[in-house]
Specification:
Number of helices: 11
CATH architecture of the domain at 81-192 and 297-375: 2-Layer Sandwich
Distance between the termini: 46 Å
CATH superfamily of the domain at 81-192 and 297-375: ACT domain
Largest sheet: 8 strands, antiparallel
Mean pLDDT: 76
Strand content: 25-35%
Oligomer: single chain
Radius of gyration: 21 Å
Structural class: alpha+beta
CATH class of the domain at 81-192 and 297-375: Alpha Beta
Length: about 400
C-alpha cells in the first residue's frame, strides 16, 4: 500500500493517524500490512496492556482465521464468547416504535437478545440481532419456532404495506462483522436513493461530505476525494463501501485537521477499469455519502447498564416509545450477566429531545438500571443545552459499566 506523506509517494508501510473506537475493524487492512498510529476516542495514547494485547492478537498471523475470531470479543456473527446464538437480519421501512415491536416479539417467544446493532438512514432500518433460547442458552434449532419468529417479524416489518419486498428477514451463522454487514444490507437496499431526512441542523454546510471522483491519467486510477467531519470508523465505512461496490483501493492518502478529515483513494474496478461514465461516478458519490451518514447520530444518546434478562430490550424500547422517542441508532451487548446498551434518540418527528422528556426517563428507567444521558459535543444544540443547566456530565461507556459492576 502506498501512502502520500508531505506530497511524496512512499510504497512502504507508513503511519496513518486516526481515532479508533473498536480496533477490530483494522483486520480489514491486514493483507495490506500498513503501520497504524492510533488513539482512543479522547485522542490519548493507548497504554492499557489488555487493549494492546488484543490489537496484537487480532492483527497477528492467526488473527484473520476462524480460530482467531473465536477469541475476539468483537461484534461478529458466530463468536463463541457470546455463547451459542442465532443471528437475525432485518431490513425494511423505518417508523417510530418499530424497534420496540421487534423486541416485544422476541421477548414473547422467550428469546434473549444478547447483541444487537440497529442503523436507520433515509427512512430505512437495518438490524442485526443475536438471540439465544432462554431455557437452553443456546441457538434456536427448532424449525417451527424459527418459522413462527420469522413470520411475526415479517408482519411487524411490513406494517401497513402489502408488498413483501418492503421488508426482509433472514437467519444466519456466518462470520461477518456487524458494521460491515449493516453497510452491505443498506447498500443492497439502495438506501442511497431514498428521500433523505437529514436536516441542516444535523449537518451544517461546513461538515457536509464533499466527495469528488476524478481520473488520474498518469497512473490510470480514479481518484475519490472525501472531505467531511472527522470521526472514528470513517475510514472503515468508506473502504467497506468501495469494496462492496467491487472497487479495489491501490493507494490512499489519509489526514485530519481538527474536526475535519481529508481522504483520497486511488481505485479501479475489480476488472481493472476506472470510473469513466458520469453515472458511475454519481453512484459512487451517493453511496459514499450514505455510508458516512449511516453511523452519524448527533444529539442525544442514552447509555444504560442493567442485569441481563429476557425482555429487557423490550421493556426499555417500550418506555422510549411511550415517551414519544424514536430510536435512530442502537447498540446492545452483553458482558457477563450485565446488559450494556446505547440508544440514539429523537422525538417522533425527528426533532431534538426536550428536557422534560429526559427527566421523565430518568425517573422511570433510573429506578432499575444505570442511565447516562450524553450529548454529542460537536452538536451546537448540545452545547446550548449544557449551558442551560439541565444536561448532565457525560462519561464514556467503559466508566458506566465499571460503576455498575462496582
Amino acid at each position: 500500500m502506498a501512502i502520500a506523506v508531505a506530497g511524496k509517494w512512499h510504497y512502504v508501510p507508513l503511519p496513518l493517524r486516526f481515532s479508533l473506537s473498536n480496533t477490530e475493524y483494522l483486520t480489514l487492512f491486514y493483507s495490506l500490512q500498513p503501520v497504524f498510529h492510533v488513539t482512543d476516542q479522547q485522542g490519548k495514547k493507548i497504554t492499557d496492556g489488555k487493549t494492546i494485547d488484543y490489537i496484537e492478537r487480532v492483527l497477528g498471523p492467526k488473527g484473520h482465521t476462524t480460530d482467531g475470531m473465536k477469541d475476539c470479543p468483537g461484534k461478529r456473527v458466530g463468536v463463541h464468547s457470546f455463547g451459542n446464538h442465532t443471528a437475525i437480519e432485518l431490513i425494511g421501512r423505518d417508523r417510530p416504535g418499530l424497534l420496540s415491536e421487534i423486541s416485544a416479539v422476541l421477548a414473547n417467544l422467550h428469546f434473549n437478545v444478547t447483541v444487537a446493532e440497529v442503523w436507520t438512514h433515509n427512512r430505512r432500518i437495518a438490524c442485526v440481532l443475536y438471540v439465544n433460547d432462554n431455557t437452553t442458552s443456546g441457538s434456536v434449532n427448532d424449525p417451527n419456532r424459527l418459522s413462527i419468529m420469522e413470520e411475526q417479524l415479517k408482519h411487524i416489518m411490513r406494517g401497513c404495506e402489502d408488498d413483501d419486498n418492503v421488508a426482509r428477514t433472514s437467519f444466519s451463522m456466518g462470520f461477518t462483522h456487524i458494521d460491515r454487514r449493516l453497510h452491505q444490507m443498506l447498500l443492497a437496499d439502495r438506501d442511497y436513493e431514498g428521500g433523505g431526512v437529514t436536516t441542516e441542523v444535523d449537518y451544517p454546510p461546513s461538515f457536509k461530505p464533499k466527495i469528488t471522483v476524478e481520473r488520474c491519467e498518469e497512473k490510470g486510477y480514479s481518484v475519490v476525494t472525501v472531505r467531511c467531519k472527522d470521526r472514528a470508523k470513517l475510514m472503515f465505512d468508506i473502504v467497506c463501501t468501495l469494496t462492496d461496490m467491487q472497487y479495489v483501493v491501490f493507494h490512499a492518502n489519509i489526514s485530519s485537521n481538527g474536526p475535519y478529515a481529508s481522504q483520497e483513494y486511488f481505485i479501479r474496478h475489480m476488472d481493472g477499469c476506472t470510473l469513466d461514465t458520469e453515472g458511475e461516478k454519481e453512484r459512487v458519490v451517493k453511496c459514499l455519502e450514505a455510508a458516512i451518514h449511516r453511523r452519524v447520530s448527533e444529539g442525544l444518546s442514552l447509555e444504560l447498564c442493567a442485569k441481563d434478562r429476557v425482555g429487557l430490550l423490550s421493556e426499555v424500547t417500550r418506555i422510549l416509545r411511550e415517551n414519544g422517542l424514536s430510536v435512530r441508532r442502537a447498540g446492545v451487548s452483553t458482558v457477563g450477566e450485565k446488559a450494556v446498551n446505547v440508544f440514539y434518540v429523537r422525538d417522533a418527528y425527528g426533532n431534538p429531545v426536550d428536557a422534560k422528556t429526559i427527566e421523565a426517563l430518568r425517573k422511570e428507567i433510573g429506578q432499575t438500571m444505570m442511565l447516562n444521558v450524553k450529548k454529542d459535543p460537536s452538536s451546537m444544540k448540545a452545547r446550548e443545552a449544557e449551558t442551560s443547566g439541565w444536561a448532565k456530565t457525560s462519561f464514556f461507556f467503559g466508566n458506566l459499566l465499571e460503576k455498575f459492576l462496582a
